[in-house]
UniProtKB/TrEMBL annotation:
The lineage of its organism: Bacteria, Bacillati, Actinomycetota, Actinomycetes, Pseudonocardiales. Residues 350-436 form the Histidine kinase domain. Residues 1-23, 426-449 are annotated as: Disordered. Keywords: ATP-binding, Kinase, Membrane, Nucleotide-binding, Phosphoprotein, Transferase, Transmembrane, Transmembrane helix, Two-component regulatory system. This is histidine kinase.
Length: 449
């Protein structure tokens, strides 16, 4: 027969049969040695006492020395009862019957050894099929041996029933007593062995789940840290990139006209100063959010929105800043203006800011058009230019401009389009839901118009 795949075998086996109990630790094995010594000492003591009192159940016993040897033979296998439980059970069961055939005096400690062997097989045997059938086989053999003894007792009674006074026949009562006692003995060993196995399995499952929970918490923590770093990086990019680009252009213009037109140079430097102050103000607002604690232990529903964050009302200032960099910008609002969630307003502002930054830095454009449309359930912002269509190079060359826009729009379940226009130039259009977010679909598509 070919080797069965482990996954297939696991699918065929019941759940309780797929778990394997770990091998006993050294401390447990040392305790088995102590238990074995205790059973051996008890066997020797009981053998001496039974022979001394003459209470010999099976009649004339062998010599005391042989009885002690039988007691040791029954006790010593218990030292390996958790490492090789089924083998120990078979050995102890066989020796138990053999000792009774030899009519040894002590049966109490022999029964204790057999109980421990049955219990250990149920509690420690890795192969549950072998554990079940080895115990059933030994128990059936024991009841067979008991039946032989009962038949011999009925045929040749060796008890004095002269004092019997109960309602049942003395021999019937003796048979029922022996069967009931042995049933209780073997079934309790079987039951408690299974219970120990089940308890160990559940304990192991709890430990495994606790470890999985710990790993999951670690992964969630790492994911949260990464997400927070991405958010901080996106905010820093949005706050710094636009203003620094404008400052760089204005500083370059001031340097070029410093000797020829001091008034124009002063105006450019004034713009640099104002832009720097604006950038510092936004940075302070961002740092304030990072340092503040959430109210009542709850995160804001719009994590990117805060009191110092710009919104749609500041688009006019953004357009003015872009114009100060030498770009002709038209700004139009279409539809009936209405309040939108702070997070949506901030994301719309950042999309326009990043798009204008790309126009100033990469597009070599003379004109740009900024449009805000209030639709029925969405807000749409669009930035187009008449440049050479290089505004998307930030994403191609490893920049984070379009990536940040996609992330911001995706947070609200919006849609982003970015690409060259058919008549020349470049267009960025973001559509942001202003009601409950239905999905988080995010895509970047080329515009054909």
């Amino acid at each position: 027969m070919g080797r069965v795949d482990e996954g297939e075998a696991g699918a065929r086996e019941p759940g309780w049969n797929r778990w394997r109990r770990p091998r006993p630790e050294p401390a447990i094995q040392r305790s088995d040695v102590l238990v074995t010594l205790a059973v051996l000492a008890g066997s020797c003591l009981m053998t001496v006492l039974v022979n001394s009192m003459g209470m010999l159940v099976f009649g004339a016993p062998p010599s005391l020395g042989e009885q002690l040897v039988w007691g040791a033979a029954l006790s010593l296998p218990l030292v390996a009862r958790r490492r090789y439980p089924s083998a120990v059970l078979i050995v102890v069961g066989t020796l138990f019957i053999a000792a009774q055939v030899r009519q040894t005096g002590d049966s109490l400690m022999a029964s204790v050894a057999l109980f421990l062997a049955i219990y250990s097989t149920g509690a420690w045997e890795p192969n549950r099929t072998a554990a079940r059938w080895s115990r059933i086989g030994v128990i059936v053999a024991m009841f067979g041996w008991l039946g032989i003894g009962l038949v011999e007792s009925i045929a040749q009674p060796d008890y004095d029933f002269s004092a019997a006074a109960g309602p049942l026949d003395p021999m019937l009562a003796s048979v029922l007593y022996n069967i009931g006692f042995n049933l209780m003995f073997f079934l309790s060993a079987y039951f408690f062995g299974n219970l120990a196995w089940l308890s160990a399995r559940r304990r192991d499952e709890l430990e495994e789940r606790a470890e999985q929970l710990r790993l999951s918490q670690q992964q969630n923590t790492r994911n949260a840290i990464v997400a927070e770093r991405v958010r901080i990086a996106r905010d820093l990019h949005d706050v710094v990139a636009h203003h620094v680009s404008v400052m760089g252009i204005q500083a370059g213009a001031a340097r070029r006209v410093l000797d020829k037109d001091p008034a124009l140079a002063r105006e450019a430097l004034r713009t640099v100063e104002e832009t720097a102050r604006t950038a510092i103000g936004e940075l302070r607002g961002l740092l304030g959010v990072l340092r503040s604690e959430p109210e009542n232990g709850q995160e804001s529903a719009e994590p990117d929105a805060h009191a110092a964050s710009p919104g749609l009302d500041q688009l006019a200032e953004l357009v003015s800043t872009a114009e100060s960099a030498g770009l002709q910008v038209t700004h139009g609002v279409y539809g009936e203006a209405r309040p939108v969630p702070d997070g949506v307003a901030l994301s719309a502002y950042r999309v326009v800011q990043e798009a204008l930054t790309n126009v100033v830095k990469h597009a070599s454009a003379r004109k740009a058009d900024v449009r805000v449309r209030y639709l029925e359930s969405t807000l749409e912002v669009e930035v187009s230019d008449d440049g050479v269509g290089r505004a998307g190079q930030g994403a191609v060359s490893g920049g984070f401009g379009l990536l940040g826009m996609r992330e911001r729009v995706a947070v609200h379940g919006g849609h982003l389009e970015a690409g060259r226009r058919e008549g020349g130039g470049y267009r960025v259009r973001a559509t942001l839901p202003t009601g409950p977010v239905q999905s988080t679909e995010d895509s970047e598509e080329r515009s054909a118009s």
